[in-house]
Amino acid sequence: MLNAVLRKSFSKSACRRFASSTSLSSENHYDIIVAGGGMVGSTLACTLSKNPILSNRKILLLEASKEFNWKPTEKYSNRVVALNPNTRKLFEKIGFWKHIENVRYSPVCKIQAWDALSESMISFDSNNHVDEVAYIVENSLILYAANIENQSLHNLNIINDAKIKSCNLAIHEDEEIQVELENGASYTCELLLGCDGVNSKVREAMGVQYVGWNYKQMGLVATLNLSEDTEENRIAWQRYIPTGTIALLPLNTKQSSLVWCNTNENIKQLLKLSPEQFVDELNSALWKQYEKNDIVNQATKCLGSILKTLDAPANIMQQLPPSICSIEESSRAAFPLGFGHAANYIRKGVALVGDAAHRVHPLGGQGVNLGFGDICSLDEILGNAAYSGRKLNNLLDLRKYETARQRHNVPTMLALDGLQKLYTTDFTPVVLLRSLGLQLTHALTPVKRAIIEQASH
């Protein structure tokens, strides 16, 4: 009799949910717990909660920080990300983009990168001058959009100041996962999703092998004021210098965001400089003419001539980066850079997402986009599992997620790690190799298109 009533009152997927979960009467039991409420965790919680197939599942978002109460101001935040087109599609789908659009973002129509030791360059343009290559958005603005959307979801509960003490993972088929907080509260779930960053408690509880190293570099960020107000500030610039990389990301017609990767010692010194001294050092790093090696010069000129005879794109810098006149007060900050990757993203009833699973160097602007790609994959796989009547913690479904994402993430991570090592030396054979490689890649349109497609997923 009860089953008949349930069939009349709920959809087929809802029936499966009640049949597969016996502890839902407990207010501390959830179908899914998302550990970590940063950009990736908040987006994941919203995405799963808005999935029509998962709309009747109870989801809990645990965030270690206090309640987010940031409000947009005229002053830009000093931490920004370059979102790829696929991430924008995800944000449009779950309602984030309308909030971002109502505040501000900057489209990037071109990326230009060049080697200071040879002037070899590569540029990536938007396809057919229609689609943007990327979108520069403040981290805080993404969290602001997530907060608005998440507060309206009936099946999502958010707990702030929720620092995880331990995770007791399931061993046997019918066991629940238990998450204990430092304040003594305890919650159980069918599926635990670890979005709790580089020092993930969830990954620690899983006991998976984690490979990581420190680059002995730091990334310095700041908000820059340009010397000239220009409507054409739609280019992301990146210069490779012997000690690291400098990237200028457009914010508006007269401001850009800086990401300067350099040695720990150099970054600490740059933080101590007065604003005027810092601007002088930055302009010098952007414009300084380094001594060129004759062998490298001759080789790049020879290759350039060959490419011209083949009617390939010429390796000539068509545009110069803007000069900087000042920095926004108190906008300088720095963070350590490193590499990390979990050998396994999943185990029974658990999956790692974002920085908990992978950490990369920021020179390609791909770090957070890899995490948003994880979200798209997990959302599709869990939706299919629920539609087919399988439990959310089904190991075969979770393995599909792990396989799909590792096939994408690992090559991207290795490429970025290789670039970091390739561009932090002035050893002549390496400079020659990377300069010729940059010229060839710039000239081969199919290769550049493949790089853009890889970076967009």
Unreliable residue runs: 1-25
Number of helical elements: 14
C-alpha geometry: globular
Structural class by sheet pairing and helices? alpha+beta
What Rg, in angstroms, do the CA atoms define? 24 Å
Integer average pLDDT:
88
- Helix fraction by DSSP (H/I, runs of at least 4): 25-40%
> Per DSSP, what share of the residues sits in E-state strands of 2 or more residues?
25-35%
CATH-scheme architecture: 3-Layer(bba) Sandwich
Distance between the termini: 48 Å
Number of domains: 1
Output the CATH homologous superfamily: FAD/NAD(P)-binding domain
CATH topology: FAD/NAD(P)-binding domain
Structure characteristics:
single chain, 457 residues, nine-stranded mixed beta sheet, eight-stranded mixed beta sheet, 20 strands, 39% helix, globular
Question: What does this protein structure show overall?
Answer:
The protein is an alpha+beta fold and 457 residues long. It has a single domain, classed as FAD/NAD(P)-binding domain (3-Layer(bba) Sandwich). Helices cover 39% and strands 26% of the residues. The protein contains 14 helices and 20 strands. It has helices at 2-9, 12-20, 39-50, 85-94, 96-103, 139-151, 201-206, 264-272, 275-287, 294-309, 367-387, 395-422, 428-443, 445-455, and strands spanning 29-35, 59-62, 80-83, 106-108, 110-115, 121-125, 134-138, 156-159, 164-168, 177-181, 186-194, 210-226, 235-241, 244-250, 255-263, 324-327, 333-342, 346-347, 350-352, 358-359. The strands form 3 sheets. Strands 5, 6, 12, 13, 14, 15, 16, 17 and 20 form a 9-stranded mixed β-sheet that branches. Strands 1, 2, 8, 9, 10, 11, 18 and 19 form an 8-stranded mixed β-sheet that branches. The chain has a 3-stranded antiparallel β-sheet with strand order 3-7-4. α11 (367-387) runs antiparallel to α12 (395-422). It is globular, with a radius of gyration of 24 Å. The two termini are 48 Å apart. The model is unreliable at 1-25 (pLDDT under 50). This is Ubiquinone biosynthesis monooxygenase coq6 mitochondrial. Keywords: Monooxygenase, Oxidoreductase, Ubiquinone.
